[in-house]
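Customer escalation, tier 2.

The customer says the design service returned an amino acid string that "doesn't look like it belongs to this structure." They asked us to rerun it and document both sides in this ticket. The original structure tokens are below, unchanged.
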């Protein structure tokens, strides 16, 4: 294999796994390659950017909606009743978002047969013992059966061992016609991510299965999983909280590319078009140990998300606290003040920027000290931005956004100024970001019936605001962005 072929193969894997695409077998790539995972082969080589990732369909599906299954062989370390309940719950994950039904049988022909086996078990794809391959399943065209490695320590509602419910729900996705997804938070991602106490399907999973079988009658586009909800559905007043007052505490992209807005003790998940159904939810339920009223948040290139409040910060890997936190900002981010207003990783140079009052700081962990003596600098260096910001975000369309008191500013990283536009910035965040019909408190009035709004049915096409901008669907590093004059933005003395 030539060096270029090898490097491209590594890049394909890194892209599919949501890693930094370097083409080199770095420690993170090698670690990911050794994670426990599903034995179904991946469709790699089609993704080049995390923001373009989406589900994959295998190409076959069941032609009936009422499916049957049988557990032909049980695992050795769990009793049958427990296994029956977990397998049933795993099927409910998919019947909860589609018209499909699943009936357990003990005899006769069935659509999906479930077996726990060790080593070679008759299908030409032997299991490899503890770790490695956890299970595999056949697509509908090949029968839909699901096999689990009985050498694994299968567990229920425990952080120890391998969670049977989550692995079974993943395998049954294959049994229904789904291939592996390259969205890291999706259930159909190939790597086992460990026990998740507050499990729910990702939007990517829901979109995938509904592309094959349609939506469940009378249910929205993104209902929760088959597990009993941990929170009651929000009331109308809670749903409209961001429309009544679109002021937020922080907004950030997760390592998986999902955008979340935080306010008080609640958070909202944003889709390309509005707020996802079923929100708001409690921050403390989804990020155990994290308080409300967060000052700022961002996800860094190491795949971790950092949250800041007062003089402390927390680090999370996905939804799990990544070590002993909170820690003091002065210890982990030397040179950055307490009680910051906003923080972000800026796409112009990949550096961290912190904002407080009328000042901002640039933080570079590769330098000693990480904050140069020339900081802080005035926020007015960012042409057109106000002081005392609420939040900052490098969004997936290539623009940087700043939020303050219910309105937002779109910042053009090439011209290094707030974009001229009609209607002008700042614009009301509730209307343009959260899909609110009416103007929210703090917003700019007189923008109804603008191009992109369908007043007949309330469907917003305002998301074109968030989809337009500089394309990021290329292989360029963020440091390759240059000004029209050829000078690197990182060299601009203003920032």
């Amino acid at each position: 294999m030539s060096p270029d072929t090898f490097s491209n193969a590594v890049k394909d894997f890194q892209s599919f796994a949501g890693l930094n695409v370097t083409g080199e077998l770095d420690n993170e790539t090698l670690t990911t390659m050794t994670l426990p995972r599903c034995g179904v082969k991946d469709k790699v080589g089609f993704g080049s950017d995390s923001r373009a990732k989406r589900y994959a369909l295998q190409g076959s599906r069941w032609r009936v909606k009422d499916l049957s299954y049988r557990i032909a062989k049980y695992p050795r370390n769990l009793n049958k009743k427990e296994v029956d309940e977990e397998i049933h719950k795993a099927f409910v994950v998919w019947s909860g978002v589609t018209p499909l039904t699943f009936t357990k049988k003990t005899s006769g022909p069935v659509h999906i047969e479930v077996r726990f086996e060790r080593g070679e078990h008759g299908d030409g794809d032997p299991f490899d013992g503890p770790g490695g391959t956890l299970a595999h399943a056949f697509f509908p065209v090949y029968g839909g059966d699901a096999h689990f490695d009985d050498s694994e320590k299968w567990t229920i509602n425990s952080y120890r061992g391998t969670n049977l419910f989550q692995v079974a729900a993943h395998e049954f996705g294959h049994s229904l016609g789904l291939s592996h997804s390259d969205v890291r938070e999706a259930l159909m991602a190939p790597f086992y991510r460990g026990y998740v106490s507050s499990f729910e399907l990702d939007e990517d999973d829901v979109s995938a299965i509904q592309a094959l079988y349609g939506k469940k009658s009378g249910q929205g586009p993104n209902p929760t999983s088959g597990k009993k909800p941990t929170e009651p559905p929000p009331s109308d007043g809670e749903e409209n909280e961001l429309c009544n007052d679109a002021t937020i505490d922080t907004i950030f992209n997760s390592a998986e590319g999902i955008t979340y807005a935080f306010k008080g003790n609640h958070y909202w998940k944003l889709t390309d078009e509005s707020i996802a159904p079923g929100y708001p939810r409690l921050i403390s339920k989804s990020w155990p140990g994290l308080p409300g009223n967060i000052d700022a948040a961002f996800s860094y290139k190491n795949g971790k998300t950092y949250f800041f409040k007062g003089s402390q910060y927390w680090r999370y890997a996905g939804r799990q606290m990544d070590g002993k936190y909170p820690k003091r900002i002065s210890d982990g981010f030397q040179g950055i003040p307490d009680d910051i207003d906003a923080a972000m990783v800026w796409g112009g140079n990949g550096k961290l920027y912190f904002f407080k009052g009328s000042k901002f700081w640039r933080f570079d962990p590769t330098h000693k000290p990480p904050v140069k003596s020339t900081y802080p600098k005035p926020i007015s260096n960012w042409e057109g931005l106000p002081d005392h910001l609420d939040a900052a975000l490098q969004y997936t369309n290539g623009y940087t956004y700043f939020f303050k008191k219910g309105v937002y500013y779109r910042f053009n990283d090439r011209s290094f100024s707030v974009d001229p536009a009609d209607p002008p910035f700042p614009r009301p965040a509730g209307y343009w970001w959260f899909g609110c019909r009416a103007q929210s408190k703090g917003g700019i009035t007189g923008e109804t019936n603008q191009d992109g709004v369908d007043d007949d049915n309330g469907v917003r096409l305002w998301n074109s605001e968030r989809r337009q901008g500089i394309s990021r669907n290329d292989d360029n590093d963020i440091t390759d962005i240059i000004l029209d004059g050829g000078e690197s933005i990182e060299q601009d003395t203003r920032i």
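Tier 2 assessment: The sequence is consistent with the input. The CA atoms of residues 79 and 491 lie 64 Å apart. Residues 236-491 form a domain with the Hemopexin fold (CATH 2.110.10.10). Sent an explanation to the customer and offered a walkthrough call.
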